[in-house]
Inverse folding.
């Protein structure tokens, strides 16, 4: 798993996750640069610089000058301890995410089955889509994944297409994007029946009323 993937399963970064990414990066390569850390974690250069300085101030990493005006970064014993603690916390959150995602995606597909919506497309190639691909309900088939920005032809063993129009006959959409799900949902309701957009609760999306009445 890359450091960028370690940052978050929710598409967001927070203090603990960036700190863990910094500590992992230093542990894996003491010759890192601020720019390489920023690129690895997918954060701004200034933010990477600020977190490196913060970690040093907290005693988690030690910084020493290397030749050619470069710096070497080392984890301190305190840094190793904190890395282990944050890793355990991250894994706990990941397992919690998986359990919640699987339960909520299964329920969404069961809701589709109750309404005789037999062909469901996932909207968004993401870790949530991977979880949804493991779920099922009698009479319901996940047909494809729709993601306008995804650059490959398949994801989680499903074909990926770039528009709803290209999906063919689809009875419902299961929202699985993790990058700004609210904005994605708001755009979807303009081109797909709102009652047939299934949204897992963990996405924290404010939905249009009467979603399941049509």
């Amino acid at each position: 798993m890359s450091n960028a993937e370690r940052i978050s399963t929710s598409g967001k970064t927070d203090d603990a996750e960036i700190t863990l990414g910094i500590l992992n990066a230093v542990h894996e390569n003491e010759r890192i640069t601020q720019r390489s850390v920023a690129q690895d974690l997918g954060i701004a250069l200034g933010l990477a610089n600020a977190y490196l300085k913060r970690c040093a101030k907290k005693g988690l990493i030690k910084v020493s000058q290397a030749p050619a005006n470069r710096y070497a970064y080392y984890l301190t014993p305190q840094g190793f301890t904190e890395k282990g603690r944050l890793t355990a916390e991250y894994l706990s959150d990941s397992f919690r995410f998986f359990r919640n995602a699987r339960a909520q995606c299964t329920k969404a597909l069961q809701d589709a089955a109750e309404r005789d919506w037999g062909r469901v497309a996932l909207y968004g190639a993401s870790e949530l889509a991977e979880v949804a691909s493991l779920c099922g309900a009698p009479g319901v088939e996940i047909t494809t994944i729709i993601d306008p920005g995804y650059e490959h032809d398949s994801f989680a063993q499903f074909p990926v297409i770039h528009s709803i129009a290209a999906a063919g006959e689809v009875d419902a959409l299961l929202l699985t994007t993790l990058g700004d799900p609210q904005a994605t949902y708001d755009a979807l309701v303009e081109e797909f029946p709102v009652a047939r957009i299934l949204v897992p609760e963990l996405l924290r999306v404010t939905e249009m009323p009467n979603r399941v009445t049509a």
Summary: The domain at 3-75 is CATH 1.10.10.10 (Arc Repressor Mutant, subunit A).
